[in-house]
Amino acid sequence: MDPSLASQLTPSFAAQKWESLFKASISGDDDIPINKRGSGVRRLILLNFFRAKAEQLAKEAGRASVIYAIEEPETSQHPHNQRMLLRALCDLSSEAQVIISTHTPMLARALPDRSLRYIHLADDKRREIMKGGQATNELIARSLGVLPDNTVKLFIAVEGQNDVSFLQNISKVLRGGHLDIPDLDKDGTGR
Fold first, then answer.
1. Would residue 110 count as lying in a domain?
2. Coil, strand or helix: which one is 156?
3. HSE-CB of 59 using CA atoms within 13 angstroms
4. pLDDT tens-place string over residues 50-68
5. pTM summary value
6. From CA 6, how far away is CA 77, in angstroms rounded?
7. Helix H or strand E encompassing 111
8. For residue 149, is it left (φ>0), alpha (ψ between -120 and 50) or beta?
9. pLDDT at 23 (0 to 100)
10. The pairing of beta strand 67-71 with beta strand 97-101
11. Which of 48, 55, 39, 40 is nearest to 9 (CA)?
12. DSSP character string of 114-151
């Protein structure tokens, strides 16, 4: 899916004691072991391994159709890799059935309505599968928590404690100039 992760994988089997005979590792480019990569990269490699294996088994069995069912493929993925993964799964859906579950609004938003299904627990406790469309999309949005919250005036995301300290100090300085802004140090909203 992404040749920049590794153009090839090399399994490495070392002589082991009997109790650890089946211990193996896989290295990518530059002999970097896959288990030393981040969880997102390992997950992408695993997804693509299973994809290749499913395609190989289908070809050997003489069957053309494969169903790919993946729970939350976006887990541990950088947003760029989430988009890349979604494009790859959409491309794959032209030749196979692809089913994914997600709790990520970006993935649901990026797919056409005709591709979306919402599994809803009805009042009588039966599961109901609803096709994408305006009413269903509103249920999906409510379920994912992406409805607008008009009480939020400003949201600032920061990376670390230094950013928090900076915002707390700047709010104190600006409040000293009698500007009507929140005291981030006092009310704790800076944490």
1. no
2. coil
3. 6
4. 888 888 888 888 776 788 8
5. 0.57
6. 16
7. none
8. beta
9. 62
10. parallel
11. 48
12. GG-EEEEE-TTS-EEEEESSHHHHHHHHHHHT-S--TT
